[in-house]
Amino acid sequence: MNMTLTIFETPHVSVREWSLQDVDSYFKLAANPLVMRYISEPIKDPLQALEAIKRRHRDYATRGYGRYAVVEKSSGKVIGLTGLRYDSDIDCVDVAIWLLPDYWGNGLGTEILIECFSFCFDRLALKRVVGIVDPLNGASKRILEKCGMIFLGIIDYHGEKCELYSIFKI
Ligand SMILES: CC(C)(COP(=O)(O)OP(=O)(O)OC[C@H]1O[C@@H](n2cnc3c(N)ncnc32)[C@H](O)[C@@H]1OP(=O)(O)O)[C@@H](O)C(=O)NCCC(=O)NCCS
């Protein structure tokens, strides 16, 4: 049993902090070329998953939020990642949602992001959250829009042209 802090729940998943026992699950996700296609190079080594989880822990400690594990309630399996990261390059908090491919296409990404925005605005009292998306990532652009994000324009992000989406606390 993984005793980690639950951040929020939706009908189908719990979203909780990553634990050091999640290395295999994190690796399965971030090493998957389909998941990482529009995000970054898939990781190659479980040690990189361990380092990533430690970075997530530093964010929880310094910012009070971070990227979290998505756990399917019915199976208890880690099936994705969601949550926030402060990006000092653009001075914004950005949102992410990654799911294992078996879980795509059923509305789950939208279900999780909507609740994630409630967490951002109602509990963290953030004023604004952004999404930075590869222009070719059609599913990602679609769910950001379905969850109320607005397309602001194209930005140069680490040498790549990316689409910037934003949502504001009303
Ligand atoms: C992005 C992601 C989370 C979407 O999850 P999901 O559970 O499939 O999302 P949903 O089912 O809630 O919604 C997907 C929407 O995108 C649409 N869609 C899927 N593929 C698409 C494509 N290639 N182009 C345009 N729209 C697409 C779906 O039809 C659906 O819209 P609809 O409800 O209007 O029909 C999932 O594809 C994923 O994990 N991708 C890999 C990681 C990633 O790229 N994350 C985004 C960047 S952080």
Strands, total number: 8
Number of helices: 5
Sheet with most strands: 5 strands, antiparallel
Shape: globular
Give the strand line-up of the largest sheet. Answer: 1-2-3-4-5
Summarize the structure.
The protein is α+β, with helices and mostly antiparallel strands and 170 residues long. It has a single domain, classed as Gcn5-related N-acetyltransferase (GNAT) (Aminopeptidase), CATH 3.40.630.30. Helices cover 32% and strands 32% of the residues.
Q: Helix and strand layout, with pairings?
A:
Blueprint: E1 6-9, E2 13-16, H1 23-30, H2 33-36, H3 46-63, E3 67-72, E4 78-87, E5 92-99, H4 108-123, E6 128-133, H5 138-146, E7 150-157, E8 160-168
Antiparallel strand pairs: 1-2, 2-3, 3-4, 4-5, 6-8, 7-8
Helix pairs in contact: 1-3
Task: Describe the fold and architecture.
By secondary structure, the protein is α+β, with helices and mostly antiparallel strands. The chain has one domain (6-127): 3-Layer(aba) Sandwich (Aminopeptidase). It has five helices and eight strands, in the order E-E-H-H-H-E-E-E-H-E-H-E-E. It has a five-stranded antiparallel sheet, with helices on both faces. Strands 6-8-7 form a three-stranded antiparallel sheet. Strand 1 and strand 2 form a beta hairpin. Helix 1 packs across helix 3. The longest helix is centred in the N-terminal third of the chain and has 18 residues, at 46-63. The N and C termini lie far apart (39 Å). The structure holds coenzyme A. The site of coenzyme A has 20 residues, from strand 5, helix 4 and helix 5.
